[in-house]
Amino acid sequence: MRIASWNVNSAKSRLDIIINWLKSDSCDVLLFQETKSQDENFPREAFSALGWHVAIHGQKSYNGVAIASRHPIHDVMCGLPCDDRDEQARYIEASIENVRVASIYLPNGNPAPGPKFDYKLQWMNRLNQRAAALLAREQPIILGGDFNVIPDDVDCYDPLGWEGDALTRPETRQAFRRLTHTGYCDALRARHPHEVIYTYWDYQAGAWQRDHGVRIDHLLLSPEAVDRLGAVGVDKAPRGLEKPSDHTPIWCDLHF
DNA sequence: ATGCCCCCGTCCCGGGGA
User: Fold this and answer.
1) Domain A2-254: which CATH number of 3.40.50.620, 1.10.8.60, 3.60.10.10, 3.30.420.10
2) Alpha-carbon Rg of chain A, whole angstroms?
3) Phi and psi at residue A5, to the nearest 5°
4) pLDDT one-digit tens code per residue, A101-149
5) Other CB atoms closer than 10 Å to residue A185's CB: what's the count?
6) Which of A56, A156, A173, A242 has its CA 20 to 30 Å from the CA of residue A209?
């Protein structure tokens, strides 16, 4: 089973690119983010026409997360626990076969410091609690998404230029490392320990052409998922298409 | 130091993104 994560920057604007990517057998499960679509306007039909299932958690204009799968999707949970007042659609979790997956769009947090950065850290705290609770299920779990975290300097084309940014601040990296200390594995680093691999290139200033990228999209695996882990990679091709998302998909294979 | 670019809404600007 190949599981991918992709921040598509609008499901509607990117629909043709997404559907073509699925049609070329790129994955079996797609966790995607920034759908920017209310549930009633989400282009479900394009996925069902392929025979795919879809679970969505959207809001107007901003954010929005979804899961698409060849296999049926069960036990969907929308939103992180522990804050009923949080209206931002950034988390959806579900079961596919015997795998528990979550599609995550973690807050950006800029400018930092400030209330948006505080929200990011609170959100990461809630994610950590949920992630720890999930481990008790002792099953393959994949937390995938746009984490808005640059884990290490090697994951950024210009670490000095990004110093102080919400994506690289020590508090952010520490909160991310708490997930790995709890027992989750950064799948890309498990297979490519030292390679420079990016998943996002800004639309501006020719960042793609100059390879000014950062690695902020991640797949975090429970030990039971790591036991079944095969190859892991980033598919750069969609970033080079016309009218692309600024992110490109990351994927991993689980063997059953 | 700032903006470059792109998406959304009931819309020709402003908020948000990273």
Assistant:
1) 3.60.10.10
2) 17
3) -130, 140
4) 999 999 999 999 999 999 999 999 999 999 999 999 999 999 999 999 9
5) 17
6) A173
Q: Tokens representing A24?
A: 């070329």
**Residue indicated by tokens 């282009």:** A43
Q: pLDDT for A54-94, tens place per residue?
A: 999 999 999 999 999 999 999 999 999 877 778 899 999 99
Measuring from the CA of residue A116 to each C1' atom, give the nucleotide at the shortest distance. B16
Measuring CA to CA, how many Å separate A82 from each of A85, A105, A123, A127, A130? 9, 17, 10, 10, 9
Tokens read off for A224: 């039971």
Backbone angles phi, psi at A74, to 5 degrees: -120, 160
Nucleotide nearest to A35 (CA to C1'): B7
Question: pLDDT tens digits, residue range A150-183?
Answer: 999 999 999 999 999 999 999 999 999 999 999 9
Type of residue found at A21? W
**Cβ of residue A9 lies below 7 Å from strand B:** yes
Task: Supply the pTM of this predicted model.
Answer: 0.97
What residue has token string 């100059």?
A210
Which nucleotide minimizes the distance between its C1' and the CA of A167?
Answer: B18
